[in-house]
Design brief:
- It is a single chain.
- By secondary structure, the chain is mainly α.
- It has helices spanning about 5-15, 20-25, 30-40, 50-55, 60-75, 85-100, 105-119.
Length: about 120
């Protein structure tokens, strides 16, 4: 089953005139692994997020499409807390536990706050 992220990667690859092997080589993975990611049989490694943006020089619209495809495809998220202060870890875990209970207004406030912080 082709996922949103699989569709995005396949389109990106084709738009750049690449076959699976070309993109797989750039990502230092096997053709079969990349194919499995495209076909939804394997999860895309989180390390690819920034790597793909940089390797393919994605513009803002493409980055937004990529982010949306990741969000649509992923059912879970793994966080690396290496070097993160305990209080920040506790905040992240607390947020994750309550995430499903936030209403749309609360989520929009959080989204705006996060967008301000990234600019």
């Amino acid at each position: 089953m082709l996922t949103s992220i699989g569709k995005f990667l396949r389109k990106l690859r084709i738009d750049n005139g690449e076959i699976l092997k070309n993109m797989a080589d750039k990502l230092n993975v096997t053709v079969s692994f990349l194919s499995a990611v495209e076909n939804g049989k394997k999860r895309m490694p989180t390390t690819w997020n920034q790597r793909i943006c940089d390797m393919y020089n994605l513009n803002e619209q493409q980055r937004a499409e990529f982010t949306a495809a990741i969000a649509e495809t992923e059912e879970s998220l793994e966080l690396n807390f290496h070097g993160v202060a305990l209080s920040n870890r506790e905040l992240a875990v607390s947020f994750a536990r309550k995430f499903a209970d936030f209403d749309s207004d609360q989520l929009e406030k959080i989204r705006k706050m996060l967008e301000k912080g990234s600019k």
